[in-house]
Every structure is written in structure tokens, then in C-alpha cells.
Amino acid sequence: MRILLTGFMGAGKTAVGRRLAERLELPFLDLDEIIEEDSGSSIRRIFESHGEEEFRRRERAALEKVLELPEGIVATGGGTLVEERNRELARGRALSVWLNTPLELIESRLDAGDRGTRPLYGELSEMRVLFRGRLPAYRQADLSIAVGVEESVDQIAGRLILMLQEAQCATW
Fold it and tell me: What pTM value is reported for the model?
């Protein structure tokens, strides 16, 4: 089983992904970490030195790499499955799950400290435009789980496991 978690920056993909992988006893992979490891450079530096187009090329290569693995929970970047080519690549090879996190919760999670690590993190008005622009792509995920303000990572992972079982996507 391969599950790709998608959603906007700050949606909880990494935290939920780690917990989900732990509970399902599957490997956890973070696409941004793979990109940084493979390139020997930070995401921010790739954007600054080579631009977004080069970052997206490396992101696709990392996605291809994880889709060759037999199983795992993958936290994608916020823009990974926004790219139609990447959605096509993943279709039939992995289950995509959108962490549908309210923008207000995302904004509360992101702070000025994230500006150094998130190259597309800008002013709140810009973030809102980017968020709204990505919604149509996120809505194309195989499954969607609404993330509540008061929910813990463990609660979200538990609900996601139930959703997967109900969708008969797993046999555990």
C-alpha cells in the first residue's frame, strides 16, 4: 500500500503521515526530505539557485522514486499533486489523501519562522490566493479527510485508518 498525503503547507501532512505510518507499521517518507537528500541542498536554496521549475523537476523525480517502493506513507509537498503530470503518475500506483485543513488553522500554524524553510510562504493575502488556487487539484484526491481545529494528530490518523478500512483500501 502506498498512500500520498496532499494538502497545503501547514496542513499536517508530515505529522499525520508519521503517526499513520507508525500505527500501520509502514515506512514513512517525506518528499521534501528526499529532494533535499538527493540534491544535497535545502528546498529554499533550490528555489533560490535554480527556480521553481527545477524544483518541480526534482520533486517529480522524487515522486517517481517513492512510487517504485512496495509500500509507504508519503508526505508530499503542498504543490506536488497540484501538477497534473504528477497526479497522472500517481494514479493507480498510490492512494492520494487530501488533508482538508481550514485556511484559518493553517494560518495559525504558520509563523514568521517558516519563511526560512517554505519558499512559497509569503504575505497572508498571497497565501490565501495560492491556497484557493490549489483547491481544485486537492479536491481530485482519492480520499479527503476534514481536519478539525481541536483534533490531535493521533485522532486524525485514527479517523484516516477508519476511512481506509471503509473504502476497503486495506486488509488490516
Answer: 0.89
